[in-house]
Amino acid sequence: MKDKVFVDSNIWLYLFGNDAAKKQVALKFLSQDCYISTQIVAENINVCIRKFKLTAPEVEQHAKNLISLCQVKLIHPSTIELALKISSRHQYSFYDSLVLASALETDCRILYSEDLQDGQVIEGKLKIVNPFIATV
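Request: output the structure for the sequence above.
Response:
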């Protein structure tokens, strides 16, 4: 059985950057079954507006693509409680811990992220993998 994967915000944002190799990695995730959270969608919208200066229709289309192509985990009070525990235990920021908590609550085994510690296993279940290490 294939491991369930969760994909962090930073991966999706390479869809708009100039790094062709990283863009290809991000595109690969769009074509496979993966999980994101409402937080990931919101962070992407924010960066697309503020950093990339995309138009409202472009931002809306990107958000719709993420929502339709990925399984979306809603943030619940239990997710926040778990994030607080992870933040305390592993010294990650609350928002990074919220991503980790969302991945754990969806029973994902792999979290693809460029920003967290590659190879670290959280709660004995979730392995953080930087998908760009082999391509950098």
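The chain has six helices and six strands.
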